[in-house]
Design a protein that fits this description.
Order of helices and strands: HHHHEEHHHH
Mean pLDDT: 77
Oligomer: single chain
Number of helices: 8
Structural class: mainly alpha
Strand order of the largest sheet: 1-2
Low-confidence stretches: none
Strand content: under 5%
Helix content: 40-55%
Number of domains: 4
Number of strands: 2
Radius of gyration: 36 Å
Length: about 210
């Protein structure tokens, strides 16, 4: 089986659950570098980071399946039955295996080797799933990059304390607050608009936070 895959139990063991739970970043138990990196993430990024840590911890602590440790010890060569009769031969692939079994006693399972077409099908399915996983990871990265650009743009458009976005040209409501009639251009309105334009032109740029 490829190193990118591992056979795990459907129901996680107690050790897997504990390790997965304890993998969450903690201010007092995690490495300082990891904690600072975690603190600098957004809420969505933190959730994805915790999920990956939990998954890695549970995978690494999962028990080894019997199939992964299985080695061929016996070979059975059998003829196809014709009318209920047929010949078969049993030989040992691993010398001394039967003696080892007799020393300890117990039940010993013998596994058959899957057909080549079955292995090919499972390999293709595995490769397809890996491709889908890689595509999903890339999509997540792209979305996180887009969210980062959006948050940066929001920060750029948010005025710092003590500042407010204002129109370059005063509106009728703004002119009316200083006694200028927006519906009848006159000297007062002209003066108000002139003063506003002068103050806008002399306004300083906000300092970066």
């Amino acid at each position: 089986m490829s190193g990118q895959w591992k056979l795990v139990p459907v129901e996680p063991t107690e050790t897997m659950v504990i390790n997965g739970f304890e993998s969450e970043p903690d201010e007092f138990f995690s490495d300082e570098e990891v904690w600072e990196q975690y603190q600098g993430m957004s809420g969505c990024q933190q959730a994805a980071f915790r999920a990956k840590l939990c998954w890695a911890a549970m995978i690494s602590s999962s028990p080894t399946s019997p199939e992964e440790d299985a080695q061929p010890v016996m070979k059975l060569e059998a003829e196809r039955l014709w009318g209920g009769a047929g010949e078969y031969v049993v030989s040992f692939v691993k010398a001394g295996w039967l003696d080892e079994c007799r020393k300890t006693g117990g039940e010993f399972l013998l596994y058959t080797q899957p057909e080549e077409k079955t292995v090919a099908r499972l390999t293709a399915e595995r490769d397809g799933l890996q491709l889908a996983l890689n595509t999903a990871d890339q999509t997540i990265d792209d979305l996180q990059t887009a969210v980062g650009r959006r948050n940066q743009r929001i920060d750029e458009l948010t005025p710092p304390p003590g500042w407010k976005l204002a129109p370059i040209q005063p509106t009728a409501e703004m002119l009316s607050t200083v006694g200028a009639d927006a519906n009848a251009p006159d000297l007062a309105q002209s003066h108000a608009a002139h003063h506003w334009a002068a103050m806008i032109g002399a306004a300083p740029a906000p300092k970066a936070q």
